[in-house]
Design goal:
The protein has ten helices and 22 strands. It folds into two domains: 3-35 and 76-110 and 251-323, FAD/NAD(P)-binding domain (3-Layer(bba) Sandwich), CATH 3.50.50; 114-249, 3-Layer(bba) Sandwich (FAD/NAD(P)-binding domain). With 384 residues, the protein is an alpha/beta fold. The longest helix has 19 residues, at 296-314. It starts with a strand and ends in a 10-residue tail after the last helix. Helix 1 (11-23) packs parallel to helix 9 (296-314). It has helices at 11-23, 45-49, 55-58, 62-67, 120-123, 130-141, 160-175, 199-211, 296-314, 357-374; strands spanning 3-7, 29-34, 38-40, 59-61, 72-75, 77-82, 87-92, 95-100, 103-106, 111-112, 146-152, 182-187, 214-217, 222-225, 229-232, 237-239, 242-246, 249-250, 281-283, 326-331, 339-344, 352-355. The strands form seven sheets. The chain has a five-stranded parallel sheet with strand order 5-2-1-9-19.
């Protein structure tokens, strides 16, 4: 009997747990540990901010969904894994204890390094939690005129919500008859195509933004935010009346001091998703050190690779699944300018790109399918 412990209740952790439950005999014990018992469907947070879905549509009850598949769930704070002793230290109900394992899957996600941009906490909105999305939504409702800046800080590594928010704001203001009183600027720290898989998507996306009269400012790495201005590292500044930025990403604190991470704090893995320098330990999702964007699609793929190779290892076989790094994204403009891109990052295969209203529908259908597949006991309480 193998004891498998999975750390983290996001896409990578949930997919790894569910896939392992399907692959392994019932004699094996699968435990998932997460801080919250609610799973948050992050791709829907832009829609939530603009009133296109409800809070209960974004959450599902993680514990109920997992128990239905014979996966044990523990709601606890993860203090630190200890690969040398094959245990994980957690804090549950105010008490610390060690959870032993035979195999460990680290799906700890990323940390929002808000402290790296001075003034972010006091002055900027973001869209990377349900509470933050709801607060930004209220700010949008009260915004009637002026300069709106939608953007990303250096090391954000997630471009899609920035573009979708700019399009959604344009649409909301147009529906209210207030678009002419607002100037919308999209501000990026690097060149336009960064974190979009290259130039293939950039040209079509730039045309769509221009059609909606959304200004684009590139190579503007924000490192200071005051009450009315954003500042770049070279002291350029821009005024704003409404500000939504995605903060920098950093590796998870839980793994930072265990010698498992690179210089940026992300966990180092190989093509089989095994953690370098540790035995019987795998990692998947935003916590891994692979270059490129941090996206739910990649977390799902990596969770599946982890499950396949971990199951093979338990059965005494060699790893049989190779992770191939890729980008698959949909930028939902809300109409005919919605964009789809699939690009393999390691193989050099030609990218596939499509544009049209179908991809807006496809994204909403995927969201509905994922949440309804898991939503056994909806939970409506927002977490900040």
């Amino acid at each position: 009997m193998a004891r498998i412990v999975i750390l983290g209740g996001g896409f990578a952790g949930v997919v790894a747990a569910e896939s392992l439950a399907q692959k392994l005999d019932k004699e094996h014990e699968i435990t998932l540990i997460a801080r919250q018992r609610e799973f948050t469907f992050y791709p829907d947070l832009v829609r939530l901010a603009f009133g296109q879905c409800r809070t209960e549509d974004v959450f599902f009850d993680l514990e109920g969904a997992l128990l239905a598949q014979r996966i044990r769930f523990i709601q606890a704070e993860i203090i630190a894994p200890d690969p040398l002793n094959d245990t994980v230290m957690i804090r549950e109900n105010g008490h610390e204890r060690h959870v032993p394992y035979d195999f460990l899957v680290m799906a700890l996600g990323r940390r929002l390094a808000i402290e790296e941009v001075k003034g972010f906490q006091q002055h900027a909105h973001h869209l990377l939690s349900v509470g933050a999305a709801l607060r930004f939504g209220e700010a949008v409702k009260n915004f009637k005129a002026g300069h709106a800046i939608i953007g990303a800080c250096p090391e954000t590594r997630l471009a899609v919500p920035v573009f979708e928010t700019a399009f959604a704001l344009d649409r909301a203001l147009s529906e209210r008859g207030e678009r002419k009183a607002v100037n919308i600027s999209l501000v990026l720290p690097e060149k336009f195509s960064a974190n979009l898989g290259g130039e293939e998507l950039a040209s079509a996306l730039q045309k769509a933004l221009a059609l909606h009269e959304i200004n684009v400012v590139t190579d503007f790495p924000i490192d200071l935010i005051s009450e009315k201005e954003i500042w770049a590292r070279d002291n350029r500044r821009m005024p704003y009346d409404l500000l939504m930025l995605l903060p920098p990403f950093a590796g998870p604190d839980e793994a930072a001091y265990r010698g498992l991470t690179d210089e940026t704090g992300f966990i180092q893995v190989g093509w089989d998703m095994k953690v370098r320098g540790a035995r019987n330990v795998y990692a998947a999702g935003d916590c891994v050190s692979l270059l490129g964007p941090k996206m739910g699609h990649l977390a799902v793929l990596q969770g599946e690779i982890v499950a396949a190779n971990l199951a093979a290892e338990i059965a005494g076989r060699q790893p049989e699944a190779r992770y191939e790094h890729e980008i698959e994204l949909i930028i939902n403009e809300g109409g005919n300018d919605s964009l789809y891109l699939h690009k393999e990052l390691w193989t050099g295969a030609p990218p596939v790109m499509h544009q049209g209203r179908f991809w807006s529908w496809a994204k909403q259908i995927h969201s509905h399918y994922w949440t309804r597949q898991h939503q056994l006991n909806p939970i409506s309480k927002a977490r900040s």
